[in-house]
Protein backbone atom coordinates (compact mmCIF):
# COMPACT_ATOMS: atom_id res chain seq x y z
CA UNK A 1 0.00 0.00 0.00
CA UNK A 2 1.22 3.44 -0.85
CA UNK A 3 -0.18 6.86 -0.43
CA UNK A 4 0.57 10.03 -2.28
CA UNK A 5 1.48 13.06 -0.21
CA UNK A 6 -1.69 14.67 1.06
CA UNK A 7 -0.47 18.11 0.01
CA UNK A 8 -2.27 19.57 2.99
CA UNK A 9 0.99 19.94 4.83
CA UNK A 10 2.39 23.08 3.31
CA UNK A 11 2.41 26.04 5.67
CA UNK A 12 3.48 28.10 2.65
CA UNK A 13 2.83 31.80 2.80
CA UNK A 14 2.06 31.82 6.51
CA UNK A 15 4.96 32.93 8.62
CA UNK A 16 3.16 33.89 11.80
CA UNK A 17 3.54 30.54 13.52
CA UNK A 18 0.21 30.59 15.34
CA UNK A 19 -1.83 31.16 12.17
CA UNK A 20 0.12 28.52 10.31
CA UNK A 21 -0.40 26.00 13.11
CA UNK A 22 -4.08 26.87 13.35
CA UNK A 23 -4.71 26.53 9.62
CA UNK A 24 -2.69 23.39 8.97
CA UNK A 25 -5.15 20.84 10.39
CA UNK A 26 -8.26 22.80 9.39
CA UNK A 27 -7.36 22.95 5.70
CA UNK A 28 -5.95 19.45 5.45
CA UNK A 29 -8.87 17.08 4.91
CA UNK A 30 -6.73 14.13 5.95
CA UNK A 31 -6.35 15.81 9.35
CA UNK A 32 -9.93 17.09 9.54
CA UNK A 33 -11.55 13.67 9.15
CA UNK A 34 -9.30 11.97 11.71
CA UNK A 35 -9.63 14.71 14.30
CA UNK A 36 -13.40 14.96 13.93
CA UNK A 37 -13.53 11.15 14.14
CA UNK A 38 -11.67 11.19 17.47
CA UNK A 39 -14.31 13.45 19.01
CA UNK A 40 -17.13 11.55 17.33
CA UNK A 41 -15.88 8.14 18.48
CA UNK A 42 -15.42 9.55 21.98
CA UNK A 43 -19.04 10.71 21.90
CA UNK A 44 -20.15 7.26 20.68
CA UNK A 45 -18.28 5.62 23.55
CA UNK A 46 -19.60 8.13 26.09
CA UNK A 47 -18.03 9.12 29.37
CA UNK A 48 -15.11 9.03 30.12
CA UNK A 49 -13.95 8.39 26.53
CA UNK A 50 -15.67 11.56 25.32
CA UNK A 51 -12.98 13.49 27.23
CA UNK A 52 -10.08 11.04 27.33
CA UNK A 53 -9.76 10.54 23.57
CA UNK A 54 -9.75 14.27 22.68
CA UNK A 55 -7.18 14.90 25.42
CA UNK A 56 -4.98 11.93 24.47
CA UNK A 57 -4.80 12.90 20.80
CA UNK A 58 -3.18 16.36 21.16
CA UNK A 59 -0.88 15.22 23.97
CA UNK A 60 0.52 12.38 21.90
CA UNK A 61 0.37 14.52 18.76
CA UNK A 62 2.75 16.92 20.52
CA UNK A 63 5.13 14.01 21.10
CA UNK A 64 4.94 13.15 17.39
CA UNK A 65 5.64 16.80 16.54
CA UNK A 66 8.70 16.74 18.80
CA UNK A 67 9.95 13.66 16.94
CA UNK A 68 9.52 15.46 13.64
CA UNK A 69 11.18 18.65 14.85
CA UNK A 70 14.09 16.59 16.22
CA UNK A 71 14.50 14.91 12.84
CA UNK A 72 13.83 11.42 14.20
CA UNK A 73 12.54 9.28 11.35
CA UNK A 74 9.07 7.80 11.68
CA UNK A 75 8.14 5.71 8.64
CA UNK A 76 4.89 5.70 6.66
CA UNK A 77 3.63 9.08 7.88
CA UNK A 78 1.19 9.74 5.04
CA UNK A 79 -0.03 6.13 5.14
CA UNK A 80 -0.55 6.40 8.92
CA UNK A 81 -2.48 9.64 8.52
CA UNK A 82 -4.67 8.18 5.77
CA UNK A 83 -5.24 4.98 7.74
CA UNK A 84 -6.32 7.04 10.74
CA UNK A 85 -9.28 8.27 8.71
CA UNK A 86 -10.10 4.78 7.47
CA UNK A 87 -9.81 3.04 10.84
CA UNK A 88 -11.43 5.74 12.97
CA UNK A 89 -14.18 6.16 10.39
CA UNK A 90 -14.91 2.43 10.43
CA UNK A 91 -14.94 2.40 14.23
CA UNK A 92 -17.60 5.12 14.15
CA UNK A 93 -19.51 3.53 11.25
CA UNK A 94 -19.85 0.25 13.13
CA UNK A 95 -20.31 1.99 16.51
CA UNK A 96 -17.48 -0.11 17.94
CA UNK A 97 -17.64 -0.13 21.75
CA UNK A 98 -13.96 -0.64 22.58
CA UNK A 99 -12.72 -0.36 26.17
CA UNK A 100 -11.41 3.13 26.90
CA UNK A 101 -7.81 1.89 27.24
CA UNK A 102 -7.96 0.22 23.81
CA UNK A 103 -9.59 3.29 22.25
CA UNK A 104 -6.90 5.47 23.84
CA UNK A 105 -4.10 3.34 22.38
CA UNK A 106 -5.66 3.46 18.90
CA UNK A 107 -6.08 7.24 19.07
CA UNK A 108 -2.55 7.71 20.46
CA UNK A 109 -1.06 5.54 17.70
CA UNK A 110 -2.58 7.69 14.98
CA UNK A 111 -1.80 10.93 16.82
CA UNK A 112 1.93 10.20 16.41
CA UNK A 113 1.58 10.37 12.61
CA UNK A 114 -0.45 13.58 12.64
CA UNK A 115 1.95 15.23 15.08
CA UNK A 116 4.98 14.13 13.13
CA UNK A 117 3.56 15.72 9.97
CA UNK A 118 3.02 18.96 11.88
CA UNK A 119 6.52 18.85 13.33
CA UNK A 120 8.41 18.11 10.12
CA UNK A 121 6.53 20.74 8.19
CA UNK A 122 6.94 23.50 10.72
CA UNK A 123 7.47 26.62 8.64
CA UNK A 124 11.06 27.77 8.93
CA UNK A 125 10.08 31.35 9.79
CA UNK A 126 7.40 30.35 12.27
CA UNK A 127 7.72 30.50 16.00
CA UNK A 128 7.52 26.80 16.96
CA UNK A 129 5.71 27.50 20.22
CA UNK A 130 3.07 29.67 18.55
CA UNK A 131 2.72 27.06 15.79
CA UNK A 132 2.21 24.30 18.37
CA UNK A 133 -0.42 26.33 20.23
CA UNK A 134 -2.21 26.96 16.93
CA UNK A 135 -2.35 23.35 15.87
CA UNK A 136 -3.41 22.17 19.33
CA UNK A 137 -6.25 24.71 19.34
CA UNK A 138 -7.32 23.67 15.83
CA UNK A 139 -7.21 20.03 16.88
CA UNK A 140 -9.40 20.81 19.88
CA UNK A 141 -11.90 22.63 17.67
CA UNK A 142 -12.10 19.65 15.30
CA UNK A 143 -12.54 17.25 18.24
CA UNK A 144 -15.34 19.49 19.54
CA UNK A 145 -17.04 19.34 16.13
CA UNK A 146 -16.96 15.54 16.37
CA UNK A 147 -18.33 15.60 19.92
CA UNK A 148 -21.11 17.96 18.85
CA UNK A 149 -21.98 15.70 15.92
CA UNK A 150 -22.05 12.80 18.37
CA UNK A 151 -24.73 14.72 20.25
CA UNK A 152 -27.13 13.65 17.50
CA UNK A 153 -27.16 10.25 19.18
CA UNK A 154 -30.18 11.34 21.24
CA UNK A 155 -32.27 11.97 18.12
CA UNK A 156 -34.35 9.17 16.55
CA UNK A 157 -32.25 9.39 13.39
CA UNK A 158 -29.02 10.19 15.23
CA UNK A 159 -27.33 6.79 15.09
CA UNK A 160 -27.85 6.67 11.32
CA UNK A 161 -26.37 10.17 10.93
CA UNK A 162 -23.38 9.22 13.07
CA UNK A 163 -22.83 6.01 11.12
CA UNK A 164 -23.08 7.95 7.85
CA UNK A 165 -20.48 10.38 9.20
CA UNK A 166 -18.22 7.43 10.01
CA UNK A 167 -18.66 6.12 6.46
CA UNK A 168 -17.74 9.50 4.97
CA UNK A 169 -14.68 9.72 7.23
CA UNK A 170 -13.56 6.21 6.20
CA UNK A 171 -14.11 7.01 2.51
CA UNK A 172 -12.09 10.24 2.72
CA UNK A 173 -9.31 8.33 4.52
CA UNK A 174 -9.47 5.68 1.80
CA UNK A 175 -9.22 8.33 -0.89
CA UNK A 176 -6.01 9.62 0.70
CA UNK A 177 -4.69 6.10 1.18
CA UNK A 178 -5.20 5.19 -2.47
CA UNK A 179 -4.01 8.50 -3.87
CA UNK A 180 -7.41 9.72 -5.09
CA UNK A 181 -7.28 12.75 -2.81
- Gap between N and C termini: 15 Å
- How does the helix and strand content classify structurally? mainly alpha
Average predicted local confidence, pLDDT:
89
Strand content: under 5%
Shape: globular
Helix/strand order: HHHHHHH
Major beta sheet summary: none
List the helices and strands and how they pair.
Elements: H1 18-26, H2 29-45, H3 49-69, H4 77-93, H5 100-120, H6 128-150, H7 158-178
Helix pairs in contact: 1-6, 2-3, 2-4, 2-6, 2-7, 3-5, 3-6, 4-5, 4-7
Features:
mainly alpha, 7 helices, 0% strand, globular
Task: Please characterize this protein's 3D structure.
The chain is mostly helical. Helix content is 71%, strand content 0%.
Task: Briefly characterize the structure.
With 181 residues, the protein is an all-alpha fold. The chain has helices at residues 18-26, 29-45, 49-69, 77-93, 100-120, 128-150, 158-178.
Amino acid sequence: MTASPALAHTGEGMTGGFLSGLMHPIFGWDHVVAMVAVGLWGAVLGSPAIWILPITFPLIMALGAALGIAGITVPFIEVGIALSGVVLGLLVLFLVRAPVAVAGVIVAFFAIFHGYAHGTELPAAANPYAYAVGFVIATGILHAVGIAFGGLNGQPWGKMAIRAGGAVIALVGGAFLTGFA
